[in-house]
Specification:
Elements: H1 7-17, H2 19-29, H3 46-58, E1 69-73, H4 79-88, E2 91-96, H5 99-111, E3 118-122, E4 135-141, H6 150-160, E5 161-170, E6 173-174, H7 184-190, H8 198-207, E7 210-217, H9 219-236, H10 246-264, E8 268-269, E9 271-277
Parallel strand pairs: 1-2, 1-4, 2-3, 4-5
Antiparallel strand pairs: 5-9, 6-8, 7-9
Length: about 280
């Protein structure tokens, strides 16, 4: 039975379920990890930079172990879920709305011997299918922007976290001082009316009982990442024949250019955000 999603989430689901998007993200954007990377040099491979982000965020996840339960919202192909399961021995629920991505996730998790530790669930983070207080950590990478109800997502995260549980996430955002009306090319590309901001997430987290632990500003990596993905797309373009349509590639190049331009102008922010639910 098909699930009912909000209009914004359903738009994202259709997009990530398309053959063009699935092949592009799997073959160009990083494979297991389809989020923003951390770059040591401008020539770093996209997949290596992306895995560096996972490791940096995982360093903040204090106290995880074999008895811990983790929820990865907007899990994509599940690279972070598998990393956490391997590193900490924890059980991870990978919640994601794209059935195509979820099938790849299940296959890769089984191939890596992690089918028992990584449970892949079709669903939306706007209505998390879990009981109150079910998780020790909620994790997300560059996914919450696709919600048209971002505060609701934070409320849902707070609900499913146990007392003392933590939220660690990244999200492509607008700068807190971003001028009005300048992000049109970026928003049009991703079919959104707005982006979140650090200030927005701080306010939403506080409203729903999540105290700030730290916010680590890594914005320079956002622009670098989109630039590197654009370069990789151009390099791999001959190999994408028959897998990704020319129209999709052209639209993607325009979209990536819009992100790079907005980043260079100081309109964007990308940070690791870390919050903790009050202990009871």
């Amino acid at each position: 039975m098909s699930m009912a999603y909000s209009e914004t989430v359903e738009t994202a689901r259709r997009y990530y379920n398309s053959d063009d998007a699935d092949n592009f993200y799997f073959l160009v954007w990083g494979g297991e990890d389809i989020h923003v990377g951390l770059y040591e040099t401008p020539q770093d491979p996209v997949d290596a930079a992306s895995r560096r982000t996972v490791a940096r965020m995982a360093d903040l996840a204090a106290g995880l172990g074999p008895g811990s339960r983790v929820l990865d919202i907007g899990a994509g192909y599940g690279g972070a879920s598998r990393y956490l399961a391997k590193r900490f021995g924890c059980r991870v629920t990978a919640l994601n709305l794209s059935e195509k991505e979820n099938e790849r996730n299940r296959l890769m998790s089984a191939e890596q011997g992690l089918a028992e530790q990584v449970e892949v669930v079709d669903g939306s983070f706007e209505a998390i299918p879990a009981e109150d207080g079910a998780y020790d950590l909620v994790w997300s990478q560059d996914a919450i922007l696709h919600s048209g109800a971002r505060e609701q997502v934070i409320a849902e995260v707070a609900r499913v976290l146990r007392p003392g549980g933590e939220l660690i996430f990244t999200d492509p955002m607008q700068a807190d001082d971003c001028p009005a009306g300048v992000l049109g090319p970026v928003l049009d590309r991703i079919h959104l009316e707005s982006l979140g901001s650090v200030g927005f997430y701080r306010q939403a987290a506080a409203k729903h009982g999540l105290a700030e632990v730290e916010v680590i500003d890594l914005t320079d990596n956002l622009t670098m990442h989109y630039q590197r993905v654009r370069e990789e797309l151009e390099r791999l373009r001959p190999e994408l024949e028959g897998k990704v349509s020319d129209a999709y590639v052209e639209n993607m190049v325009k979209g990536l250019n819009a992100w790079v331009d907005a980043g260079r102008k100081g309109y964007l922010n990308w940070s690791i955000m870390h919050f903790r639910k009050a202990a009871s």
